[in-house]
């Protein structure tokens, strides 16, 4: 199966800024864990990729309508998504967490969100989770399309908290983005590479084969270390 990808070019959708998984480096080039993984697998499996930085929800829509062949975007493997997409083997364990502005002292748990507005990304696991507890804790969810916009929304006081994936919050906080976490992460989905249901099975097989090679050669761990060990 892996040989049938040979020489082909696949269009891959991704998020805009979801560091350390995808973001632009100082020179404006798309970089990050997801980018290194998909480019490394493409190189080892003999196919080419054209990466489209679409935004998370837009990438999922593009996949549903076959405008892209695959999505790698820190995308969690969920049961609901498995109905409409086919996923690779998991490659990173994640989970949702909340963050608040650094100066905020009166929010230490979900109960403190009562009567407040929070933000989460349109179409994300964070949004689904926030909405699932919104009634119970009495808060409102304002969905936005990009992590960077959500963080600004919190820092400007338009929302008191953001629900996002913990490794992305942790990375941003390590770069002094003005936020802090106040709760433990929720156990969550693992990230997978997705194709549209029943489409591009050879691409999915090649991804899984390439990922397995990358793990056994140590290249996968080297990619994680590059972005997570000493983020600068
Ligand atoms: N992991 C989350 C999800 O799949 C968020 C992904 C993202 O924002 N790029 O919903």
UniProtKB/TrEMBL annotation:
Any one GO BP annotation for this protein:
amino acid transport
Per the record, the major location class is membrane
This entry carries the following GO cellular component terms, namely:
ATP-binding cassette (ABC) transporter complex
Q: Which UniProt keywords apply?
A: Cell membrane, Membrane, Signal, Transmembrane, Transmembrane helix, Transport
Q: Which domain of life is it from?
A: Bacteria
Cell compartments where the protein resides: Cell membrane
Q: Which family does it belong to?
A: Belongs to the binding-protein-dependent transport system permease family.
Q: What is this protein called?
A: ABC transporter permease subunit
Species of origin: Arthrobacter oryzae
